[in-house]
Amino acid sequence: MDNVAILLIICVLVIIVFAAFMAILSRYRKCPSDKILVVYGKVGTDENGQPRSAKCIHGGAAFIVPVIQSYQYLDLTPISMNVDLRNALSKQNIRINVPSRFTVGISTEPGVMQNAAERLLGLKLVEIQELAKDIIFGQLRLIIATMDIEEINADRDKFLVAVSKNVEIELKKIGLRLINVNVTDITDESGYLNALGKEAAAKAVNDAKRSVAEQNRDGEIGQANAQQEQRVAVAKANAAAIEGENMSKVAVAESEAVRREREAESLRKATAAEAVQAAKAKQEAYSAQQEAELTRAELEKATQKADVIVKAEIAKEQAEIDAEAEAEVIRRKARGEADAIYARMEAEAKGQQEILTRQAEGMRQIVEAAGGDANAAVKLLIAEKLEDLVSIQVEAIKNIKIDKITVWDSGQNADGQTSTAGFISGLMKSVPPLNELFKQAGMELPDLLGKEIAEAEAERAAAETPLVEAELVEDGTSA
Question: Quick check: 195 and 285 in contact, CB under 8 A?
């Protein structure tokens, strides 16, 4: 029983390994020679480090990683299509019909093949054919618009080279290449090409007729000369008869020449009349074409004008939206600045309120310390500043500089003082005494302090008076 179980497990493992191997083999894809294998999904990066959209393989094989990669084929079978271009406008403003047949196919060049993988993968053959036909139509119209009808009709090689060059460049953008171009007869509705053919045929006929007439003339002249020589040699004996005969022949030749000249003139007039009629037909065709082009120009002008107006209205609405957004930003910014100013001023007001509250609290405590007497509290504050007041009083005349004073002393006055002493005393009295300052503040000094200060001021004034007089005398002042 154990051997059977082991054998069963081995069989299961072999089957699993075989199935995995077959699954791996099933993901290995070979590319046929008439197809392009396009692997898409996660296929690596390009030379610039950007993720690649697809990897194209022409010939060879590739392993398709399950889950993260997938694949499709692009068919390289040539695509043949009839491009019946009608009413294409030439450089001469004449519309022509250019029936042609183009053969294109998916290119195998590396860069162009990548374009085909990006733009044609998944499209049906009919869709690719219609896409190529649209590109060919546009390029044919562009080339015909740069060439004259005579140049297109006469120099087919130049026309085909221009078509191949322009169409090839545009087809490569979608991954196609031009294999063959075959342009059949070119026609126009105005009859211009038909008139050119008739003109060439008439010219060839006229040249042939002129050549035949010239040959006939040369033959007749040669024959006449031979006959003349023969008759001159034979009729030497009968000169008069031969001379008359020769004169008759000359008259006949002149008549024949006049006839031929008139025939040639008639032929020339007929050819000219035919050319004039052809030119009138061309002129009428040009006039009709010009009217059609003017109508088309008016239509295109109206279309472009409508496009410009719509774009202008869109730009106007966009400008209004941008202006409204900018105004909203300015309003919000101004609102933020106003809030900041309000917060700063509110903080400053709170600080000032706190300072005033503290000062009021201090004044209340001073009044309480003075026993509830507000005047006593004010006196305490002024007493605290007494030293500063005295210093200010002393500084009042400290820096006064008197270079020279001339005094005419008239002796002592009624108070027993000289004029000089009166001047100095008046100068000192100009400074308010301390007790006067207290009176101005609504207070009075104590009696003892007031008397002592008054006596001290009187003694200081008496002591300074002789000193000032001495200085005045030393400076040459008469006392």
Answer: no
Predicted model pTM:
0.39
**Two tokens at 371?**
């026993």
Instruction: Dump pLDDT digits (tens) for 90-147.
Output: 887 888 888 889 999 998 888 888 888 888 888 888 899 999 999 999 888 888 888 8
Mean pLDDT of 43-69: 82
pLDDT of residue 449: 46
The answer, yes or no, to whether residue 460 has pLDDT greater than 70, is no
Q: What is the token pair recorded at 400?
A: 């006064």
